[in-house]
Amino acid sequence: MAKKIKYPYEFNQKVREKAKIYSRGRFFNRIFSGIFLPLVVLSAFLLSGMHLVIKNFALNISDFFLVQIYIIVLLTILNLIEFPVVFYFSYIREHKFGLSNYKMGGWFKDFFKGLFLEYVISLITITALYYILANFSLWWIYAAILYAIFILAFHYIFPIVIFPFFYKVKPYKDEKQKRRLLEMVHSVGAKEIKNVVLALESEKSKKANAMFTGLGNTKQIVLFDTLTKGFHPSETETVVAHELGHYVNKDILRGTFFDAVLAFPAFFLVDLSLKTFSQSFGLNGISDIAGLPLFMLSYLIIEIFLTPLENWYSRKVEAEADWFSLEVAKKPDAQVSTDKRLADMNLSETNPHPLVEWYFYDHPAIKKRIEMGEKWKLKNKRKKSRS
């Protein structure tokens, strides 16, 4: 017998208290794992001379494959240092708060898949980067252009290569709901989207989501089974309508352009850093592969300052998609219910401190998303009363 879904959903106050504790841990993890730990480790590499030790080790193995061996050794050391933190926050703590469905074997399987992908992408991109560094004085211009091309290529292959690598995907069999979703999608001109698939997120976690993925002929709608099983059909429609907003607003292309624009000054500043400090750390110029930790450290410091701007843009885009969903689905009560259910399901903080939201949040706070739904509902109620 199917589980009855409470609708509309209202906040569970016990869950709200739990979410505050969980959010504090996530905040600490973002500061420690995303900023403090890499800053300390990369600085230690450079100050201790470990970056040169790795280069000598790689040279003893192969001069021809020096760059590739250096990348593999450096990534392996960094991953070994980071592993205890990654394991605690993504496995132990997620289980502690009841968010994970992973068994130990399944977690390690996905962890090693992620490592494999990291090594493949890093070997390709860093090898190309250091070729450009060695052959072009204005390398940072070419690097920013290639960065944009890589993002677009990644979006194209994501639904056919990357996503199935991590998720079991099967056709969505609820024909009635599928037809309703596609009718909504086609009504705004996205007639080329005909594929709706179901991803088995329940094997990994209790978190729910949906997304439009792909570019060109790889476009499709992906629904997580945690969404289809745990949400009211009207709520599911608002989630898909939100993702449809990203598609109609061409957010992949806009986001790629935005990232590329930021990449130009970022790589230019890295260029200045390499030229300024390479000699101090015993490097043979900016294209010396032993300077990779310096490159990574410089980019990380720049990224720390760019993060608020990137997240401001992301929040703007997400707010536009929320408004689009209200305009297309016209179900404000369902959208508010969805926001509340998602907040409790994911243990999200509803009203974070403004500085925390400004720096760390790439989506508007749940409180603001709910207020938007109520605002839209009031606005349209007034319209009806006037007509």
UniProtKB/TrEMBL annotation:
<feature type="binding site">
    <location>
        <position position="318"/>
    </location>
    <ligand>
        <name>Zn(2+)</name>
    </ligand>
</feature>
<keyword id="KW-0645">Protease</keyword>
<feature type="transmembrane region" description="Helical">
    <location>
        <begin position="286"/>
        <end position="306"/>
    </location>
</feature>
<dbReference type="GO" id="GO:0046872">
    <property type="term" value="F:metal ion binding"/>
</dbReference>
<keyword id="KW-0482">Metalloprotease</keyword>
<dbReference type="InterPro" id="IPR001915">
    <property type="entry name" value="Peptidase_M48"/>
</dbReference>
<keyword id="KW-0812">Transmembrane</keyword>
<feature type="transmembrane region" description="Helical">
    <location>
        <begin position="27"/>
        <end position="47"/>
    </location>
</feature>
<dbReference type="GO" id="GO:0071586">
    <property type="term" value="P:CAAX-box protein processing"/>
</dbReference>
<protein>
    <submittedName>
        <fullName>M48 family metallopeptidase</fullName>
    </submittedName>
</protein>
<feature type="domain" description="CAAX prenyl protease 1 N-terminal">
    <location>
        <begin position="11"/>
        <end position="168"/>
    </location>
</feature>
<feature type="binding site">
    <location>
        <position position="242"/>
    </location>
    <ligand>
        <name>Zn(2+)</name>
    </ligand>
</feature>
<feature type="transmembrane region" description="Helical">
    <location>
        <begin position="111"/>
        <end position="133"/>
    </location>
</feature>
<feature type="domain" description="Peptidase M48">
    <location>
        <begin position="173"/>
        <end position="372"/>
    </location>
</feature>
<comment type="similarity">
    <text>Belongs to the peptidase M48 family.</text>
</comment>
<feature type="active site" description="Proton donor">
    <location>
        <position position="322"/>
    </location>
</feature>
<keyword id="KW-0479">Metal-binding</keyword>
<keyword id="KW-0378">Hydrolase</keyword>
<keyword id="KW-0862">Zinc</keyword>
<feature type="binding site">
    <location>
        <position position="246"/>
    </location>
    <ligand>
        <name>Zn(2+)</name>
    </ligand>
</feature>
<feature type="active site">
    <location>
        <position position="243"/>
    </location>
</feature>
<dbReference type="InterPro" id="IPR027057">
    <property type="entry name" value="CAXX_Prtase_1"/>
</dbReference>
<feature type="transmembrane region" description="Helical">
    <location>
        <begin position="256"/>
        <end position="274"/>
    </location>
</feature>
<dbReference type="Pfam" id="PF01435">
    <property type="entry name" value="Peptidase_M48"/>
</dbReference>
<keyword id="KW-0472">Membrane</keyword>
<dbReference type="GO" id="GO:0004222">
    <property type="term" value="F:metalloendopeptidase activity"/>
</dbReference>
<dbReference type="InterPro" id="IPR032456">
    <property type="entry name" value="Peptidase_M48_N"/>
</dbReference>
<feature type="transmembrane region" description="Helical">
    <location>
        <begin position="139"/>
        <end position="167"/>
    </location>
</feature>
<feature type="transmembrane region" description="Helical">
    <location>
        <begin position="67"/>
        <end position="91"/>
    </location>
</feature>
<keyword id="KW-1133">Transmembrane helix</keyword>
<dbReference type="Pfam" id="PF16491">
    <property type="entry name" value="Peptidase_M48_N"/>
</dbReference>
